Amino acid sequence: MSTSKTPTFVRLRVEMVLEISDVDALTGTALESIAADFTASGASADDSIEERTHAEETVREDAAEALASLLDPFDLVSQVPGVELAQASWSSETIDYDPDAEDWAADEDEAADDADEDELYDGIEDNETDDEEGGGHTER
Predict the structure, then answer these.
(1) Quick one: which of 53, 63, 69 has its CA closest to 26?
(2) Number of domains observed in the structure of the chain
(3) Rounded distance between C-alpha atoms, residue 16 and residue 135, angstroms
(4) Domain of 55?
(5) Domain assignment present for 26
(6) Is residue 74 a part of any domain in this protein?
(7) Does residue 77 lie in a domain region?
(8) Is residue 10 exposed (0-12), middle (13-18) or buried (19+ Cβ within 10 Å)?
(9) Three-state DSSP class for 90?
């Protein structure tokens, strides 16, 4: 009797609320990262300048965008043995946050929406990522 090793896919959902205590430091780090990425990319000069300018404007205008530009789901799992990132998407947005509010837990409606989404994606294989507002995505 042989045992076949079929891949197991797991959808990991993480939601975090982060407090940005120094917007200038965050934005500066994002701009440094953009500069390093475009220097290392070797893209054509015209495309590189236009894309870089757009990326810099985006992170200067919105701290949530600056944060999203610095986070990479691959970095979170790259050191985990036996795990390979198949697909990822992430987003960020500025929110009103009151940690003392009673309704800060996930809504029942949100949980129902998530269940509906899980049913929709069961059995579907594709290589597209969600390009959600205020975020980025990657495929590996």
Answers:
(1) 63
(2) 1
(3) 14
(4) 22-95+131-140
(5) yes
(6) yes
(7) yes
(8) exposed
(9) strand
